[in-house]
């Protein structure tokens, strides 16, 4: 196969890149052109092998005139994408190319991690196979999770929605320390774009036509990505997220080869919550250049 070359975002053959990603055996929504454009303000480039047979998107950032690789929020896994399995030698060449950058952080996807064990720290994702009937999937919840699945009071309504304004407003109000308004606004752009493409889902609980709690998903390429959550903390929590996730699992159960991607967590309580639905641990790799090793990861 041909050598690896660097292609700037403005020179990228968008049709070939998109085809390569869509045909890849390890597709991730995070590597879509429109998705990366939103998160990086089009500040990214790509390592390309051959006629786009193998691709590796690289998100970039600059500070004080110094350019470095920085994987943005809402972008858990990137790495090397390919339609046909590649050799360890070729993967190592991509990895070596990455190491020539100043890398604040970069995450290889689960398939890269399992097959090639790239250099870096292993991080945990949680994934649930949806190829079973709902009743069987529910039996795999732990006892505490099943116990929390009580009927909601009649004044609450569980529904799907394609709106984002009240979701983002609640997100900003209730989680001001989690991230800046800038990133919340980028999440809203992702939501709107996903709704336009009919791949976005917001499952929510309302009371008196007001949003109480909601989760945002993107469903594409046999994977359901859980990308955003918001809940009104002034309302007594009766297990809203448990109810919403259970509803979503029910909605997409018995789907051959589909996976529910919780996006994992390094927070023990969140990890236990994900695993309580029967989700399995999957590992991806977090890499940063030695010059950044003094920073917390």
Architecture blueprint of SSEs:
Layout: E1 4-8, H1 14-23, H2 33-40, E2 44-49, E3 54-63, E4 66-70, E5 81-82, H3 88-99, E6 103-108, H4 110-116, E7 121-129, H5 134-139, H6 143-147, E8 156-161, H7 165-174, H8 181-196, E9 200-207, E10 210-220, E11 223-231, H9 240-252, E12 259-261, H10 268-275, E13 280-287
Parallel strand pairs: 4-6, 11-12
Antiparallel strand pairs: 1-2, 2-3, 3-4, 3-5, 6-13, 7-12, 7-13, 8-9, 9-10, 10-11
Helix pairs in contact: 2-8, 7-8
Q: What keywords describe this structure?
A:
10 helices, Aminopeptidase, alpha+beta, 2 domains
Structure write-up:
With 297 residues, the chain is an alpha+beta fold. The protein contains ten helices and 13 strands. The chain folds into two domains: 4-119; 127-283, Gcn5-related N-acetyltransferase (GNAT) (Aminopeptidase, 3-Layer(aba) Sandwich). Helices cover 32% and strands 30% of the residues. This is Acetyltransferase (GNAT) domain-containing protein.
Would you summarize the structure shown here?
With 297 residues, this protein is α+β, with helices and mostly antiparallel strands.
Architecture of the largest domain, according to CATH? Answer: 3-Layer(aba) Sandwich
Radius of gyration: 20 Å
Q: What is the CATH domain class of the largest domain?
A: Alpha Beta
Continuous helix count: 10
* Unreliable stretches covering 5 or more consecutive residues: none
Question: What name does CATH use for the topology of the largest domain?
Answer: Aminopeptidase
Protein name: Acetyltransferase (GNAT) domain-containing protein
InterPro entries: Acyl_CoA_acyltransferase (IPR016181)
